[in-house]
Amino acid sequence: MRAEIFTPGEEPAPDGWDDFVRSVNGCALWEEPLLEAAAWGSRRPLRAGLVRDRGEPVGAFCGHLGLLSPARRFAAPGRPRLPGWFQTHLPNSFSRGRTYAAGLDPAARAAALRAFGRALRRRLGAGCLGVLHLDVERDELDEIRGLFTVRRSTAPCSVLHNRWDSMDAYFAGLPRTRRRRLAALHERIGGDPGLTAAHETAVDPVRASRLDQLTRMKHTRRPGTAAPLLPVWFERLNSHAGAAYFTHRERASGRLLSFDLVLDVPGGWATTVTGSDGTRDLYLDLYLREIDRMIRTGTPAIQLGPGMRDLKASFGADAVPRHAVAVPF
């Protein structure tokens, strides 16, 4: 197996990249235009690689070199001057930065990982200490191996599995006090004459970028370092068949007040980027809108991502264990 490494935003993807990630039902963020837009706003250069076996694509990988000074982001391209670990992760998501051809067995997946690691080391040189695989779930643990491999548990991913036939049934399954509060909130926001709640395929990119930044600033200890997603990233997602937004807007002006981006993934949906002007009840109602549509469409599950585990559990989500696996070179 051989891997071809490229830098999104600076180099074109290898031939067949988009066709491959679509063939394995990779979410919209795997596609070259979205990786390019993510790279333009990233503090660290993204790297991605396509692995081929006898000329046929069998695996795709994405991530960035960690522990690298953000000041180096806009330096001349080339090998890193400071050592670090390459972290596999799909940008602007809670998803793993690894995807494989359908039917590829564990041994072949491990071989694809090794081919990617070899190509990455040739590209980045001694400044890359190894690969730190993030968002590793139980099904991948036996595939990611090497000498002196280190595994650590990380924050679990909250997943809400669809087991209801109506919102009434959903509310009925919640603890009494939680049921009353969420049902009342859902009814109050749904009946607010000044608001509209919707499921949309496009939003104003500039407004969405601003709301995303406000949300990131609220959840970081250093708000001044919160880099917004560029409007072009939202422009390229707008009207993509595999992406949708759950939104709240001012009824009179149509101004976007909150949104949650949901992507089609194998097994259901994955929530990713969210933005709000700070009204907590709207944020909670977005979850309820997503659950309602999940039930009505028969979607098997929603991945709500790591973080705020207790809050997500209160909506009925289960915690799926995740790990980080370090494979030194």
Q: What level of helicity do the residues show? A: 25-40%
Alpha-beta classification:
alpha+beta
Q: pLDDT under 50 segments (min length 5)?
A: 68-75
Q: Evaluate the radius of gyration.
A: 21 Å
H/E element sequence: EHHEEEEHEEHHEHHEEEHEHE
Distance between the termini: 18 Å
Taken from the alpha-carbon principal axes, the silhouette is globular
Task: Please count the beta strands (DSSP E, at least 2 residues each).
Answer: 13
Major sheet attributes: 13 strands, mixed
| pLDDT averaged over residues | 91
Q: In percent, how much strand structure appears in the residues?
A: 25-35%
What is the number of helices?
9
Q: How is this structure best described in words?
A:
The protein has helices spanning 17-23, 32-40, 106-124, 167-172, 176-190, 205-218, 231-237, 280-297, 309-313, and strands at 2-6, 46-53, 56-65, 84-88, 98-100, 128-136, 150-161, 195-200, 243-250, 256-265, 268-276, 301-305, 318-328. Strands 1, 2, 3, 4, 5, 6, 7, 8, 9, 10, 11, 12 and 13 form a 13-stranded mixed sheet that branches. It is 30% helix and 31% strand. The two termini are 18 Å apart. With 329 residues, it is α+β, with helices and mostly antiparallel strands. Residues 68-75 have low confidence and may be disordered.
